[in-house]
Amino acid sequence: MTSPEKKHLAVVGAGIVGVCVALQLLRDGHRVTLIDRGSPGEGTSFGNASVVEPHGIVPVPTPGVLWQVPKYLMDPLGPLAIRWSYLPRLAPWLARFVWNSRPSRVKRNTAALHAILQPVLESYAELIKWAGAEDMLRERGWLAVAEGEGAWKSTLHHAEIYRRHGVPLTVLKPEEIRQYEPAFQAQAVGAVYFPKVAHVVDNFRFVQMLAERATRLGASLQRDEIVDIELADGRVAALRSREKRYACDGLVICAGAWSKMLTRRLGYRPPLDTERGYHITVPKPGFELRMPVLSADRGFVATPLEIGLRVAGTDELGGLKLPPNWERAEVIRRNVRRWFPQLNDEGYSRWMGFRPSLPDSVPVVGPAPRVANAWLAFGHGHLGLTMGARTGQLIADLVAGRDPGIDMRAYRADRF
Ligand SMILES: Cc1cc2nc3c(=O)[nH]c(=O)nc-3n(C[C@H](O)[C@H](O)[C@H](O)COP(=O)(O)OP(=O)(O)OC[C@H]3O[C@@H](n4cnc5c(N)ncnc54)[C@H](O)[C@@H]3O)c2cc1C
């Protein structure tokens, strides 16, 4: 029996966001059913760059982006590319994306990201201590390296914005880069070192471990696909898969890039699309990086994981259904070989994943419009791992009716 103030909540989606939401709800004493059609962490959370990046406050849409669109269409292997055949479906999202690149919107979106990102390391420290998943996070900082003058100019511009928001960083000359990362061999114009950045030693194992902790703490983990939501008197009464019915007192949708299929059942259609990203993972690279290294020119990050070297990133606007363009993963491989000619890439694997992206780069974290007992947590774009624990905390506060301590209007679903 659940006590009146404690609810039975169904959380759909066991990616990093869903497992963190489930844990924070369990921490508040709720009963939790966590449902995923696959095994926890097999969605986008499987293959990211594994970086917890509290300073990632600059949204993707910024001034000048409009003029770049033809370039994105012409170069399918560039750091940001648009698949031609997807353009008609993407157009409404792209229009909002361009709208969000105006200076006033960038300012607003930066402020929203700053408020949610600032305490992410503390949120993780607290959550993993409580859940007993220590030793997965390493706080070794990261390096953003620029090889061309254009990338260097924009790196310094971003560094200035970060500084204004209190982010600690050090600007490095080319000859200083190897003191921080001895394995780096390419010619660079400069780099910025950010000490307050952490990485997870294996992002997939991390999600699996957190999900396992959630079940040990009482959550019921169900491998099932939710295809319908039953509403009664403007409230969620139950979820339905093809074979089962899950009665619940409330619902949290954490289904990443697929969330729209579920919110539709609540009468809400967010402008959610996907920025597809690729990775290669090299099991025995033959050297060890000290910390993650970002290519400011080419949009990928090389991260030392316990399973090898992960090199992940780039951005392809192509929806959920088009097949991967594996040449993009090959481009990542060729570029990382230039950085680390000593790399042994034998036995490497490649992957493509779907960042859940809203056109302002700000996630939806808040109540579902018009449905009293449903909450939404999706659209974390490039920073879902970073924001996982913090999102869980905010959702738990909203469910409990506690003050989350920040203005939640910026993350509301009805802002669009
Ligand atoms: C190349 C790349 C690099 C990245 N690097 C980083 C990084 O370094 N740091 C960072 O913070 N972020 C990074 N990201 C972004 C990050 O990976 C995502 O934002 C994050 O994984 C999103 O998590 P999620 O839980 O919202 O979604 P997912 O991990 O996709 O989880 C959603 C889950 O919902 C389930 N689901 C969907 N629909 C249903 C349904 N109807 N019924 C049941 N289950 C359902 C899916 O099976 C899935 O498991 C990167 C992304 C990419 C692609």
Structure description:
It contains 11 helices and 21 strands. The chain has helices at 16-27, 65-74, 87-99, 103-117, 120-131, 149-164, 177-180, 203-216, 259-263, 327-339, 384-400; strands at residues 8-12, 31-36, 51-52, 80-82, 137-138, 142-146, 170-172, 190-194, 198-200, 220-223, 228-232, 235-240, 245-247, 250-253, 273-282, 293-295, 300-305, 308-317, 349-357, 364-367, 374-378. Strands 4, 6, 7, 8, 15, 16, 17, 18 and 19 form a 9-stranded mixed beta sheet that branches. A 6-stranded mixed beta sheet has the order 10-2-1-14-21-20. It has a 3-stranded antiparallel beta sheet with strand order 3-9-5. Strand 16 (293-295) and strand 17 (300-305) form a beta hairpin. Helix 1 packs parallel to helix 8 and helix 1 packs parallel to helix 11. The longest helix has 17 residues, at 384-400. The relative contact order is 0.21. The model has no long low-confidence stretch (mean pLDDT 95). It binds flavin-adenine dinucleotide.
